[in-house]
Specification:
Blueprint: E1 3-8, H1 12-23, E2 28-34, H2 38-48, E3 53-55, H3 58-63, E4 69-72, H4 79-88, E5 93-95, H5 103-116, E6 121-123, H6 131-144, E7 147-155, H7 167-184, E8 188-194, E9 210-216, E10 221-227, E11 235-242, E12 246-248, E13 257-259, E14 262-264, H8 271-274, H9 276-291, H10 300-317, E15 324-325
Parallel strand pairs: 1-2, 1-4, 2-3, 4-5, 5-6, 7-10
Antiparallel strand pairs: 7-11, 8-9, 8-15, 9-10, 11-12, 13-14
Helix pairs in contact: 4-5, 5-10, 7-10
The protein binds NADP nicotinamide-adenine-dinucleotide phosphate.
The site of NADP nicotinamide-adenine-dinucleotide phosphate has 22 residues, from helix 1.
Length: about 325
């Protein structure tokens, strides 16, 4: 059976996910599209899914009997109502991050899913599907011994002028927040933020770089450098130090060129290139589970845990270096 998917939000990532469902992945096709800006939906239909119907609203798309599963790739603030509507309709739903823009919103989704009694939600934390992070997790589980420290960095060459300090957490570090929790199989208990002097290319509404220090329930200390004006490239780094050894995230494959008495290899500059393969794997995983009427991968609970930690980190940005507690509600059995 071919899984019939409806896509809500036909901007950059909705367009790209439609392309991969139509041209790269197996077992599914896009039969429905919706966007507040209908021209975006028409453009995606014309380029990738000529047989797809365009729906005036996301709610109408979710309600259509032609739609077996839903992709929510609209603007972040609209995710919560669409995910709740998909759960109410009993349809598997892949939601791009963030699951909701507040921890309370994510919690409402968890409660709706628990009341439904079955996992239907996959959150788009694609780093869990990256071959490098999967290899790092295996190395930590098999070789380094219990983790004690993690050093991580998230560097972007530059960001638009509208990017301001809290976005370093909500838009950038949110991926580290999820993937490190998964990597360590642990939960965060506190966050602190420290700032060096501002980089010359930053501006008054952006503290850049910044260092977020997270402490986990098992006593691991994590430092994450976020530097979104680093100039030289898009660079994601992660080293785990354990009882017996240390393991690092592998560098992306890059050709080594020996020339003019130098040994050089290029560094990526666009985040889309860094994780392109993991988007394919995460969505294929969604298709396989959704065809069985369920969901796999990062759960609504993971989306909630990330939202709580992100809120604490943003609070810590303003706390003058003091620690801010990270407290989750009791994890429902559905997510054990
Ligand atoms: P985008 O290019 O702005 O696309 C969002 C689309 O949703 C636009 O076409 C927008 O229409 C439409 N839209 C806004 N409100 C809507 C509503 N109520 N109902 C239906 N459509 C609506 O943004 P994007 O970069 O694709 O990002 C979309 C989401 O994916 C964001 O939450 C973002 O954080 C997430 N994302 C995740 C990753 C990742 O690494 N996992 C990467 C990129 C993006 P207008 O053009 O009229 O506003």
């Amino acid at each position: 059976m071919t899984l019939q998917i409806g896509v809500i939000g036909c901007g950059m990532i909705g367009r790209d996910h439609t392309r991969r469902i139509q041209q790269v992945l197996t077992g599914a096709k896009v039969v429905a599209l919706s966007d507040v800006n209908q021209a975006n939906a028409e453009s995606v239909r014309d380029d990738f899914a000529p047989e797809a119907m365009i729906y005036a609203t996301g709610e109408a798309l979710i309600g259509s009997t032609d739609v077996h599963a839903v992709l929510v790739t609209s603007w972040g603030a609209t995710h919560e109502p669409y995910v709740l509507a998909a759960i109410a309709a009993g349809k598997p739903v892949f939601c791009e991050k963030p699951l909701a823009t507040t921890a309370e919103g994510a919690r409402r989704i968890v409660e709706a899913e628990v009341a439904y009694g079955k996992k239907l939600v996959q959150v788009g934390f694609m780093r869990r599907y990256d071959a490098g992070y999967l290899a790092l997790k295996k190395a930590v589980e098999q070789h380094t011994g219990a983790p004690i420290l993690v050093h991580a960095a998230h560097r972007n060459p530059s960001v638009p002028e509208a990017y301001i300090t809290p976005m370093a957490i909500h838009d950038t570090m949110i991926h580290e927040i999820d993937v490190l929790r998964w990597l360590l199989n642990d939960d965060y208990v506190s966050a602190r933020v420290l700032y060096p002097r501002n980089a010359a290319r930053s501006h008054t509404k952006l503290r850049d770089p910044q260092v977020v220090i997270l402490e986990t329930a098992k006593g691991v200390l994590i430092d994450v450098e976020i530097f979104v004006n680093c100039q030289y490239g898009y660079d994601i780094r992660c080293e785990v130090i354990g009882e017996a050894g240390a393991a690092s995230l592998p560098e992306p494959m890059a050709i080594a060129i020996r020339l003019d008495a130098k040994n050089q290899s290029p560094i990526l500059t666009d985040w889309k290139d860094r994780f392109v393969a993991s988007y394919d794997v995460e969505l294929q995983d969604f298709i396989v589970a959704a065809a069985k009427g369920s969901a796999t991968g990062p759960t609504a609970w993971d989306g909630y845990a990330a939202a709580v930690a992100a809120d604490a980190c943003v609070q810590a940005q303003e706390s003058g270096g003091d620690a801010v507690a990270i407290e989750l509600s009791v994890r429902p059995a559905l997510y054990n």
